[in-house]
Amino acid sequence: MKKVLSLLLAVVMMFSLVACGGGEGGETSDVTTYKVGVAIYQFDDNFMTNYRNELVDYFKTKETDTVKYEVTLVDGKNDMATQTDQIRNFITQGMDIIICNLVQTSSADAIIDEVVAAEIPLVLINREPLAYDADKKPIVEGYAGILDNPTVCYVGADARQSGTYQGEIVLELPDKGDIDGDGVIRYVMVVGDPENIDAQFRTEFSVKALVDAGMEVECLVEQIGNWATDQGQTITANAITAHGDKIDVVFCNNDGMALGAKAAIDAAGLKVGEDLYLLGVDALPEAIELIKEGGMTGTVLNDHIAQSHAAVDAAVDVLAGGEMQNYYWANYAKVDKAYVDAQ
Ligand code: BGC
Which residues touch 341 (CB under 8 Å, ≥6 apart)? Predict the structure, then answer.
C-alpha cells in the first residue's frame, strides 16, 4: 500500500512539475516548445551554409521528450534593411530567443536595443560588433552593447589569430614564401567584406606575421572580393594579368575566394607550390581536398562546429533559466599539407 501511495505521489509530482515548467515557450500538457529565430546575413555563403546546417542539426540533438526547439531560419540576403525587418518579425512572432549573424555590425546597437526591449535573449554569431580604443583601433571583446546587457552574447573566433596563422603557414615553407627567391614576398590580398573585422584582421595579421619574422614584403594588389568565389577568381585573374610571375603568395580572407583564385591560377596555366602559394581561411572540405593534392598551400580552420555548438548551448542554457556569458570563443587551427596528410 505504501508503495502504491508513493508511486501515486511521484506521478502527481511529475505532472505538476511539467505544468509549471519553463516560464516561456509554448507548452502543451507535457512538451515545452521554444521558438528560435535564426537570422543569417546571407544564405549564399559557403562558410555560413555549413554553420547554419550544423546549428539546426545540433539543436535537434538537444531536444528531449519534454523540450523541443522550433527553429526558423531567415536569409538576410546581405541587406541590413531586410535583416532589420526579419528581426522585427521575430519579435512580433514571439520568438523565445534570437540568433543573429548581422549583415552590418555597425547596426548592432539598433538591433540589440530592439531585441533587449522586447526581453528576448540575443546570441550574435560570426560577425563581431566592436569597441575601439583611443587610436581608433578595434578591440576584440569589449563592445558596450554586449557588455552592458546580460542577455546578449557574441559567439566567434578572434580573427587576428587566423591572419597570423596564414602568415605562419607561409613562413613554415622551405623558402618562407619567397618562391622566386628574389628576397621579397610579393603578395596579392583578396579581402572579404571590409566592414567585417574578420576581413580587416586577416588582411593585417597575415602580413604582420611575415614582417615580424623579418621578411621583406610588397603588396601587388589588395582588392575587395566580398567573401565570394567569383570575385576571388576575377581579382586573381586580373592580378596575374598585371603581375604574372612576380606574385609569390595569394592570400584570400576565406576559402570561398581561394577556390575562385585557384580557378584563375589554373586558367593562367600556373601551379600552386611551383609558381606561387595560395592561402585561405575556413577549412572548407573543398579546400582541404585541394591542399591534399597540392592545389592550395594551406588554410585555417574556422571551427563552425565549435561556434555553432557554443551558440546553441548558450541558447539552450538561457532558455532553461541559466545565465549567459557575454563572450564565447572558438580557436582557429593551422591547416597545411602536413596537417591534412596526418588526418
Ligand atoms: C568566414 C567567411 C564568411 C564570413 C561571413 C568569416 O568568418 O571566414 O568565409 O564569408 O565569415 O561573415
Answer: 292
